[in-house]
Amino acid sequence: MEHSPPSRGPTHLLYLHGFRSSPQSTKARRVHDWLRMHRPDVLWWCPQLPPSPREAMARVEDGIGGWPKSTMAVIGSSLGGFYATVVMRRHGCPGVLLNPAVDPARDLAAHVGEQTAFHDPEDRFLFRPEFVDELRALSPPMASAGPQALAVIATGDEVLDWREMAAAHADATLRIVDGSDHALSDFDDHLPHLLRFLHLCD
Hints:
Layout: E1 12-16, H1 26-38, E2 43-45, H2 53-63, E3 72-77, H3 79-91, E4 95-98, H4 104-108, E5 113-117, E6 120-127, H5 129-138, E7 149-154, H6 162-168, E8 173-177, H7 187-197
């Protein structure tokens, strides 16, 4: 991919990881590695999100409070895709949704209790019943990020229903992936599309 002039695309990029995930997410690290090599002018932030959705969004809003809303973008995966949808609806910025959760209050109600982090099984946290209500309060189910979004959706997602994701984001640019999985293990195949959508490269 060609190196794009610094004036192209976002100046600030936010990445929001999924449930039980972290900034060590393979997808997050791949995007960050590409930016460091090709677009070091772009400010990157991938925060560790607390299990409380209310606290997670407060941390995000505090972190992006000084960002220029006209030149920021967001990428979110799974539950992070739901959070990214909230950010995009609030701030009108473009973004990319990777197998985004569309009704996490419903989906995560079954996961109340002690959980372990994917990237560090020794890291345990409690997903409390009130967190389901916090998710419900953030955004209505099936809310769309709108036409400023690219939604990458795998038909082989073993966690979320790809048809529901596609229906929720029908007004976005859809990239329906035949097969793959929830983690988008073939993420390198989709990275160029993501970068071009955000005008980070030609």
